[in-house]
Amino acid sequence: MSTNRADHRRVSVADLGRAELAGRRVFVRVDFNVPLDPDGIADDTRIRAALPTVRHLVKNSARVILASHLGRPKGKVVAELSLAPVARRLGELVGRPVITVGDCVGPRVEAAVEALKPGDILLLENLRFHPGEEAGDEGFAQALARLADIYVNDAFGAAHRAHASTAVMARFVERAVAGLLMKAELENLGRLLDDPARPFVTVLGGAKVSDKLGVIRHLLERVDTLILGGGMANTFLLAQGRAMGDSLVEPDLVKEALAVLGEAETLGKELLLPVDLVVARDFSADAERRVEGRPEVTDGWRAMDIGPRSAERFGDIIRRAGSVFWNGPVGVFEFEPFMAGTEAVARAVADCPGMTVVGGGDSAAALARLGLADRVTHLSTGGGASLEFMEGRTLPGVACLERAADVREGARQTEES
User: Fold this and answer.
1) Are 406 and 386 within 8 A, CB to CB?
2) How far apart are CA 197 and CA 23, in angstroms?
3) Which residues of 337-350 are buried (b: 16+ CB within 10 A; e: fewer)?
């Protein structure tokens, strides 16, 4: 069994009640890496995703310490990347004030933690203001651990990063468990890998084959149908000898694409590529465009979306699926004229009566834009993490919880003997 899907699922913060939480300092690694605009937070989806864990801890009188990164400050304090706006929004959502402090480690932070009363919530400042976070520095991890009795990892979106707060800190606390969001992510994605309802259809889009080659190969053995769209499909079409004009392609991966096509045939799996394309003169919303009835592009034009016949074909297959995993738009959906293909996929996923799991920021954004986010079984908060999980790779943020569980179980058995 993969490390990603081992016994960590038996213990989560849901298994800890008032007797274990009341008055305890509970450090929760959340993923509040939210998009910002001049008016504040542009999308609070990730904040809302953490609410079940936060509310469970508050209800059971824990002293709650939340920690997250935001953006890429590269180990320096960047005022524009402060978590202060996140604290304000979180306070609105939970209906109580969220305490802030100007740092995430040190005597001032430790004093703020000690002053917390049961049910209080403290949000630490951006972890990445310290270089030790991304470096996975043990000293920084120990400084964070001094704030806590119990560690909860609820940041699935950062679980593929071996950073101090996601993968190292768990070694230095009394107990480490998964949060409710982490638990839901692992269970839903794990079910697709371990026991999917058939037929199992995966739709992969996005710009580059290189970003998803590993997951394509890992899923080929498990899926019934694999649908490829977006820029990544262009490289596969090129491998089939199709002219792709000025489209985004990765010529150095043509051999790999051919190998994948061969593997699909050998395994008897259906691998579908676009049969028609929407092409444009330029990469812009107002570019001259037309539908190309074949999956080929002439010089001076570029593929921007799957065509209407492809959209209909893909949609029919998705609607009949027992399980669906979708990651990545099948066109340049941020430009309205090239949104149709991604919209067709999104609506088909929403209509599918089977289990539907959507991973990746762009796919989630497309669903939200169409008002369909609440019509899928599970909307993953981790694009990169969900892909690495579906590729069968070990996630450091999950492995650290398993190690902590193993240590605890070993100690219990020693006490009993």
Assistant:
1) no
2) 43
3) bbbbbbbbbbbbbb
Q: What is the pLDDT of residues 60-76, one digit of tens each?
A: 999 999 999 999 999 99
Q: How far apart are CA 81 and CA 73, in angstroms?
A: 7
- Contact indicator for 242, 296 with CB cutoff of 8 Å: yes
Residues 6 or more apart from 205 whose CB is under 8 A from it?
A: 228, 229, 230, 232, 233, 327, 328, 329, 330, 331, 342, 345, 363
Active site residues: 46, 208, 361, 384
Report pLDDT for 365: 85
H helices of 242-339, where?
254-267, 308-319
Query: Residues 6 or more apart from 79 whose CB is under 8 A from it?
Result: none
pLDDT at 402: 79
> Hey, what are 89's tokens?
């929004």
**Closest-CA residue to 347 (of 385, 315, 322, 302):** 315
Q: 5 pLDDT exceeds 50?
A: no
Exposure on the CB side of residue 238, measured as CA atoms within 13 A:
23
What integer pLDDT is reported at residue 405 of this predicted model?
61
Q: Which of 68-72, 197-201, 212-216 has the lowest mean pLDDT?
A: 212-216
Tens-place pLDDT, residues 321-373: 999 999 999 999 999 999 999 999 999 999 999 999 998 778 888 898 899 99
By the 8 A CB rule, do 164 and 131 touch? no
- DSSP label at residue 332: -
46-73 mean pLDDT? 97
Straight-line distance from the first to the last Cα atom of the chain, in angstroms, rounded to the nearest whole number: 28
Residue 157 CA, distance from chain mean position: 4
Strand order in the sheet with 378-379: 270-272, 225-228, 200-204, 323-327, 355-358, 378-379
**Residue 337, both tokens:** 């004229």
**Beta partners for 40?**
37
